[in-house]
Design brief:
By secondary structure, this protein is of the alpha+beta class. It has one domain (8-29, 36-173). Helices cover 26% and strands 21% of the residues. It is built from 4 helices and 8 strands. The strands form 2 sheets. A 6-stranded antiparallel beta sheet has the order 3-5-6-7-2-8. The radius of gyration is 16 Å and the shape is globular. The N and C termini lie far apart (33 Å).
């Protein structure tokens, strides 16, 4: 596997397989997975540049001044790895699918993880969206039930991680990020 994210074929498989899987999961009776209801998902739209209809803030953390392959390398330097089992995410502004995702956790079986999704922009840059959530390997029902899902914390952790390894001139905060990250020029 390359150092810059999923192989092209893997992304194609995600784009082809996950939306039908999502439709099937959403059609399950809620009692088949107690405590989860219809929150099972394999594909969904992230919160956009403004709060979504549930009042949740946007996941857009930073915009990196380079293509997704470069942004993935930056995240890898900050300790992220490729998230093979992640749901396919769609951009809220135009519905395009993500250009890959990376996960950071202290260990494979840690309870919590920071999850970043990459979206290429028309001007050659990459939006990095993030959230903090339970590890689906360790607590799958609670993960898919979004128990503890925290957009603000994940977005802030992505910002801190990018700031720790990338020069400040190569990225900019989204309007929804806290802005409390100190950087060195």
């Amino acid at each position: 596997m390359s150092d810059h994210g999923p192989p092209h074929w893997m992304q194609s498989v995600r784009e082809a397989a996950l939306p039908p899987l999502d439709d099937a999961a959403r059609s399950l009776p809620t009692e088949r997975v107690p405590g989860v209801g219809r929150t099972l998902y394999a594909a969904y739209t992230l919160g956009g540049r403004s709060p979504d209809t549930r009042g949740e803030p946007a996941e857009h953390a930073v915009t990196y001044d380079g293509p997704p392959a470069e942004a993935a390398r930056v995240l890898r330097r900050a300790g992220y790895g490729f998230g093979q089992l992640a749901a396919l995410k769609y951009h809220p502004d135009d519905g395009r699918s993500d250009d890959g995702n990376l996960i950071k956790r202290p260990s494979r079986w840690a309870m919590w993880q920071t999850h970043a999704h990459l979206f290429a922009t028309d001007d050659g840059r990459t939006e990095i969206h993030g959230h903090y959530e339970r590890n689906g390997l360790r607590a799958p029902v609670r993960h898919y039930g979004a128990d503890g899902y925290n957009i603000e914390r994940g977005r802030d952790l992505v910002v801190e991680d990018v700031a720790s390894v990338a020069p400040a001139a190569t990225w900019e905060l989204s309007e929804w990020s806290g802005g409390g990250v100190e950087t060195e020029e």
